[in-house]
Amino acid sequence: MWQSDSGILAEVTSLISDAVLGTNNARQQEIASRISQLSQNPEFSCYLLLILTTDSINLTVRLASGHTLKSILEKKPDIPIGIIQYLQNKILHALADPQISSAICSIASTLYIILEGWPELFSFVAANINLVNSLNVLCVVFEDISTYSALAYLLSRPEYSEVLKTIIIKLLELAQSQNLLAFKAMNQLLKIMPTPLMPLVSKYMDVLISVPVNDYIAEGIFALSCARKDVVKRNFKECAEIMMRYMASEKGAIGCNFWMEFIREKDLLQPYLEQLLFTVLGNLKLTDEDIMQMMPENEDFRFDKEEGEKNWSKRRESAILMDNLGQRFGGICFLILQNAIQNLLLAQDWVSIESGLLGLGALAPGSGDTLLPSLPIFLPFLLQQTQHPEKLVVAMALWTTSRFTDYIISTTAFQTYLDAIMKAMSLRESIVQQAACTSFCILISRGPEDLQPYLDSILQIFSQYLGLYHGKALINLLDAISSVSDVMSEAIQDQKYISLLFEPVIELWNRTSNGERLMWTLCETLSSIILSLGSLVESYFQNLLGRCCQLVEIGLSEAEKQFAIKALELAGVIIENSSQLDLSQLLPLIPPCLDQSDVSLRQYASATIGDIVSKSSPNFENYMENIIPKLYPCLCVLEGPEDISSLFSLACNNAACALGEIAVQYPKVIENKVQIIADKIIECVCKIAAPLAYNAQGNNQDFSKGTHLPQVRANLLCAVGKLGMANSSALGQRITSVLYIWCEAMEFTVDPRDKYWSLKGLLRALACNLGALDNTFQYFAKALVDYKDMPDDLRGETCALLAQVKGFAGEGWEKYVGLLPFRQELQAKFQV
């Protein structure tokens, strides 16, 4: 166990004390330099923790020491096991100190994250649940896991099973005595990994509806509505009354989200419809907090996940709920609110007008024929509001008008609307610029043919604004440019669009430093443009790839992984569209990306490998022995909340596709690894394809019908087939369990090349194990018959296998095949 040196301890204490209690600038620089030197030594973390936990030291100095320790740990240094043990033991003892509650809980959670698990911390909490810091640290860990959602799977490990059961039982007891932190911890666990709570959710519901309403009660009911709708439905009247009252409170966003969870349950919502509509309409009025969020100093808000809870506001979620109620219940919603909305639109104060515009726009998609007769009256009014002196009314008028785009492009109002958008883009206010760019995105997606005559002049204007816009407005302008590339890809495949479309974005790319988050959107925009222009801009590819590598390095060295993710996405597009590239700078970065705990980063790294392999890069062979085993951890799917399970499924999809492509391009390299790879992919396939699998939400839903979709399953099975190209014997021994699913999934394999290699590998595997067809031949034969435009060489191999099966079946062949409804097609196509 680590032991301190009194001299070093005194020096570190003095440095931290001088840093926080005030000295001159020269001394501050000296301190920063010395702390930077000391932080290179892993033992420095121990000294910082020792200072934090020493009562005799000034509390401000202690807390500053804790902050420094957390910052160092977040950089994920390589910490020796002895020092880790010291930190863990010291943290557990320090959880009893109320003076450093926030700091020690935050450090404990950070250590849990960087170690990717710390079962002893949960055991400590279970044994000392009545300590205030036990509940605090539990809440901080759960909150951090929700931020790094890819780590939620840690809680499903066997070593957490029993201790979580103990903690949950104790949390339920504390909740019954109205302990707010117990509610908070239970709610967080419901969001990130609800499975351990399933046996006790009914008891938790009883507690929630029996105690006085507060924020945690409402959050608990909402969390249960996501995890176990059946439990909420059994108590829906009580829950609805609580959430209806809560919707009018300051944190009414949670109430709106509760109703959204049941938006498909028309019969449940019908009795509350009118009350709901008037409540959400009242919630649409701007508050001071809403206006502050729109100010320029909050520009970074655009980069946050829009679905994240921290971005929820009562107004935003109310508008979403109104939109969905309108689409679910139709024109009756507009009829209920028509007079109220009209009164708002005709009011004297701009706040009422703006909320009326938002209400009208929210109801527009679902109101259909009910609103249509009024549009000739409403539309001129809306276009008039784009000239309003208040910028927020102008922005909302643009958004509301955009909701009627389908109607506008079929009328003479199109030109007037386009002029209004372009004029709004020229205004100085960022909020108006944002709304105008968003309106343009919708317009070009609905009416690209109508915009084509204006395209060149619009792009010239866009290129000017790229040098004038800032913050969210610049992001939205880049989104508009991406929309042009995506929607009009054929129309812009011309040399002139290099200067009109591509080069202005490249100029912005060159002006933007690597550490700016704007690079994320620039990567997305360049990906869209390159996909459209392709080889026309190939001369730029090598330099772009070099910059992508710099961004990947930033993402690997910092907590913000989006730099690496977006750069890998762009790198993949560049590789896909290039004829020749030097990948020597990129290839060494792929293995460390696969080592990251961030599943999204592993997902994009796996996709990039697939792009590289498909181009048969000569240098790639030097990295394969290192890369292939690092793809194995990606070959898993996780049953849990949809956002988490989707992450794992997509990473699994990309890793399997990459391994399948390696089997085709480099069969000798992967030959002796086919057995373990096939087993892992087949396990994932069976889990995704399993009907009525019990999922973490406790609803006994079909796991295969989530966001994983049949396409992911088809891609995994396609990869399985490709493995037969590397080792047909090893695959033949394992194919029986998924052959039926493979046959079913063939229709979802869209890429002709993927379908070709998957069947080719499978044919070779089946030739080694004809017995795999004993119970599945009819499905296999149907998949063969349905394979349109089968290449001649593949048809030859198929004929050979079917002839082999016919010989194996002997006299029973004709009798068995004659029962197939597609017998004649089989015979005509494969001569059997």
From TrEMBL:
<keyword id="KW-0677">Repeat</keyword>
<keyword id="KW-0653">Protein transport</keyword>
<protein>
    <recommendedName>
        <fullName>Importin N-terminal domain-containing protein</fullName>
    </recommendedName>
</protein>
<dbReference type="InterPro" id="IPR001494">
    <property type="entry name" value="Importin-beta_N"/>
</dbReference>
<dbReference type="InterPro" id="IPR040122">
    <property type="entry name" value="Importin_beta"/>
</dbReference>
<dbReference type="InterPro" id="IPR016024">
    <property type="entry name" value="ARM-type_fold"/>
</dbReference>
<keyword id="KW-0813">Transport</keyword>
<dbReference type="GO" id="GO:0005737">
    <property type="term" value="C:cytoplasm"/>
</dbReference>
<dbReference type="GO" id="GO:0006606">
    <property type="term" value="P:protein import into nucleus"/>
</dbReference>
<feature type="domain" description="Importin N-terminal">
    <location>
        <begin position="35"/>
        <end position="96"/>
    </location>
</feature>
<dbReference type="Pfam" id="PF03810">
    <property type="entry name" value="IBN_N"/>
</dbReference>
<dbReference type="InterPro" id="IPR011989">
    <property type="entry name" value="ARM-like"/>
</dbReference>
<keyword id="KW-0963">Cytoplasm</keyword>
<dbReference type="GO" id="GO:0031267">
    <property type="term" value="F:small GTPase binding"/>
</dbReference>
